[in-house]
């Protein structure tokens, strides 16, 4: 499964709207600390990377495209 598909599937479990685009700000629909922690855990486990404290910038995680770009950066 493609990276973006995996991200979309995970986010769809939490987002309040049925449809969202890859550039839509998912944090506007799901802003809470539980979602944020679950998202980080998902990214670390699913893509076998470690999210460093200094990388916990909302811009890295606010859309499917931003998350996919972050994962690509971490897996270079």
Would you summarize the structure shown here?
By secondary structure, this protein is mainly α. Helix content is 53%, strand content 0%.
Shape: globular
Which structural class do the helices and strands define? mainly alpha
The succession of helices and strands, N to C, reads HHHH
In total, how many beta strands? 0
CATH architecture verdict: Orthogonal Bundle
End-to-end C-alpha gap: 19 Å
Instruction: Calculate Rg over CA atoms.
Output: 11 Å
Main sheet specs: none
Number of helical runs? 4
Poorly predicted tracts of residues: none
Write down the overall mean pLDDT: 91
Indicate how many domains the architecture comprises.
Answer: 1
CATH homologous superfamily identity:
ACP-like
Q: Tell me the fraction of residues in β-strands, as a range.
A: under 5%
**What is the CATH top level name?**
Mainly Alpha
Q: Percent of residues in helical segments?
A: 40-55%
Report on this model:
It is a single chain. The chain is mainly α. The chain has one domain (3-74): ACP-like (Non-ribosomal Peptide Synthetase Peptidyl Carrier Protein, Chain A, Orthogonal Bundle). It is 53% helix and 0% strand. The protein is built from four helices and no strands. It has helices spanning 3-12, 27-30, 33-47, 64-74. It is globular. The mean pLDDT is 91.
């Amino acid at each position: 499964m493609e990276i973006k598909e995996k991200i979309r599937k995970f986010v769809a479990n939490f987002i309040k709207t049925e449809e969202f685009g890859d550039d839509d700000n998912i944090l506007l629909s799901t802003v809470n600390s539980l979602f944020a922690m679950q998202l980080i855990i998902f990214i670390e486990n699913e893509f076998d990377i470690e999210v460093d404290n200094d990388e916990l910038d909302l811009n890295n995680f606010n859309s499917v495209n931003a998350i996919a770009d972050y994962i690509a950066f971490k897996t270079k």
